[in-house]
Design a protein that fits this description.
six-stranded antiparallel beta sheet; elongated; single chain; mainly beta; 42% strand; Immunoglobulin-like; Jelly Rolls; 1 helix; 3 domains; 34 strands
Length: 442
């Protein structure tokens, strides 16, 4: 299998980004379309995504009254005032626009029996943030800004008018992120640990993206659609920026970033026709190396390690990954044979010679070898490292070729660790829980 240009790095990095591809409204069933009821009717019962205390009615076109969004809405005062709530995922420190539509029931001949005022009390994280009132039988949107303090926040809406079983129509509840240009985390893009190094690929998370954009050519650019990331004031080069529930940018750290302070200030920057915005600095650990092994599928600790087929007589499946069959679909899985050669795809092995420009691949005809000593341990046994290089056709992607050592016990969850020895004698290791599958020698 041939991997070239952005293909291999983008494969690993976009796998990470799948977690960020969600819609802007964090409320589940905010327009009360689930369950669907017959036209010109009302119904009670459970409401997807929401919990209620004393019940409610779902309306669908009864008396010809339309929903504000979609085809259905709620009546919150059925037999008595009711409350609905749900817990939504939020980013601590991020700002959200919390909105809903409210209408009074004054249109169906109830006359003096109808409440003169419909009132909804909205709470965020246990605190009342908005009390909305509507006297007319038409929809009016109310909104307020709220800030999250935790990864989960309770959203609650309570009918607060006269409890008379008539009124308080509710629809189109939304909680949407307001781009506050906040960074909530910076990690090594392979191992997801909060430490980066010059030339490595970092994933920056937070609340900052106004759009989704990905690089389409090499050299990578320092800006995508007005978005950029800096490290101690020096721009990185961007694989992409992803607008979603949890915004993310994948970026190569500048090769010339100093490490003497052991800390780096990371900022995101956005510039468009509405102005120029900078985030507050986010401090991250920086070291001469930050070794990590890419993992796949998402949510697992299975290493991206490929078996090398030496010849036709070799029983290795060409292009197979060193994992148990069926665990890395659509790629073929085959445990690595003891004595066989594998390629480990990694990140953060430190400087190389010759050194390419940040965001670029090495000059044609060159293979940049790592300057530092790189070791690999498989099942706790040190492996023979044949080479540790910067993959010549991908930006910032490290490639280690190593031999599966004798003495490793076969198994589907064999730990694999990269260790980099720095100039001062300090050694930095990748995560200890990343694994491959190993089999006995054929």
């Amino acid at each position: 299998m041939k991997w070239s240009l952005l293909v291999l790095a983008s494969f690993f990095l976009q796998v990470v980004s799948l977690h960020a591809q969600n819609g802007p409204n964090r409320v589940v069933n905010g327009s009360f379309e689930d369950p669907t009821i017959p036209d010109e009717s009302v119904a009670g019962g459970p409401l997807a995504g929401w919990t209620s205390d004393v019940g409610f009615e779902i309306w669908r076109g009864l008396f010809g009254f339309p929903a504000h969004d979609g085809s259905q809405h709620l009546e919150m005062d059925v037999n008595e005032n009711s409350t609905i709530f749900q817990d939504i995922a939020t980013v601590p420190g991020a700002t959200y626009r919390f909105s809903f539509a409210l209408a009074n029931r004054e249109f169906d001949g109830c006359g003096s029996f109808c409440s003169p005022v419909s009132r909804i009390e909205a709470s965020w994280d246990g605190n009342v943030v908005l009390t909305a009132e509507q006297t007319e039988g038409s929809w009016k949107v109310f909104e307020t800004m709220v800030t999250a303090t935790a990864a989960t926040t309770r959203l609650q809406l309570r009918a607060a008018g006269e409890s008379d079983s008539l009124g308080d129509f509710l629809d189109d509840v939304q909680v949407a992120a307001v781009r506050s240009h906040v960074i909530t985390g910076v990690v090594d893009a392979a191992g997801f640990r909060p430490r980066i190094s010059p030339g490595s690929i970092a994933s920056v998370f937070g609340n900052f993206a106004e759009m989704t954009a990905t690089a389409s050519s090499i050299p990578l650019s320092e800006s995508l659609g007005g978005f950029s990331v800096t490290f101690n004031g020096t721009p990185g080069t961007l694989f992409g920026v992803f607008d979603g529930e949890f915004d993310q940018s994948n970026v190569q750290v500048p090769w010339n970033l100093g490490v003497s302070s052991s800390k780096a200030e990371v900022k995101v920057h956005w510039e468009d026709e509405s102005g120029e915005f900078w985030s507050e600095p986010f401090e991250v650990d920086i070291a001469p190396a930050s070794p990590g092994i890419y993992m796949y599928p998402p949510g697992t600790t299975q290493a991206a390690v490929v078996n090398f087929k030496a010849g036709e007589e070799d029983d290795v499946i060409a292009g197979s990954w060193a994992q148990a069959p069926g665990t890395v679909d659509p790629v073929v899985g085959q445990p690595a044979a003891i004595g066989g050669v594998v390629t480990i795809w990694g990140n953060g092995l430190g400087p190389v010679s010759p050194l390419p420009a940040t965001g670029d691949i090495p000059p044609a005809g060159t293979v940049p070898f790592t300057d530092k000593t790189v070791r690999v341990f498989i099942g706790g046994v040190e492996a023979q490292v044949l080479s540790a290089v910067l993959q010549p056709s991908n930006v910032g992607l490290n490639q280690i070729n190593a031999v599966i050592p004798v003495g490793v016990a076969p198994g589907d969850d064999t730990p694999i660790v990269i260790e980099v020895e720095c100039d001062d004698g300090m050694t930095i290791r990748s995560r200890e829980d990343v694994t491959i599958a190993v089999r006995a020698a054929p």
